[in-house]
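Table 4 source record.
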Amino acid sequence: MLFHRAAPPLPPRTLTYLAGVIRRHRVAINSSRRILNPGRQALLVLVYLRKGETFAEIAAGFGIGTATAWRYVRETVALLAKRSPTLDQALRTAKRAGYAFIVLDGTLIPIARVAADRPHSSGKHKMHGMNIQVLAAPDGTPLWTSGSLPGPVHDLKAARI
C-alpha cells in the first residue's frame, strides 16, 4: 500500500480552530485515550471534507482503522454542526449588517446511491443527491445552511421546511 501526506489547501488557523473544538469536547466528555491527538483528528477530518477521499484511504494514510476514521469524522462534523447559526440568528446578523437583500438558493449535493434508491433521485438533475438551501449575503458569504433533504424536494418546498 502506498501512502501520501495530507495537504488540504486551507489556512493553518482552520486546523488550529478545529483542533481546539475537538480538544474542548474531549475534556467535556472526559475522553483521555484516543489513537489520534486533536490536531491529527482535525487534519483527518479536514482532508476528508476538502479532498473527498474514501474512509479506507484516509484511514490508511493516518495509520488507523476505517471504522475509527468514520467515527472521528462523524464526531467532528456533529461538533461543527452544533456551532452553526440557526436561521433566526442568521437573519438577525443580516439585519444588523444592514444588507439591502439576502440571497436564498438551493443546490443539489451529489451522493452515491444505487438506481433503486428513488427517494434521493432528482429528476431535474438526473442524479441522486441531497437538497441543501443556503442563505447568503449580497457578496456571496454564506450566512446559514439548511439541513439536507432528499433530492426530489423542490427548492421552494425545501425553503419552507
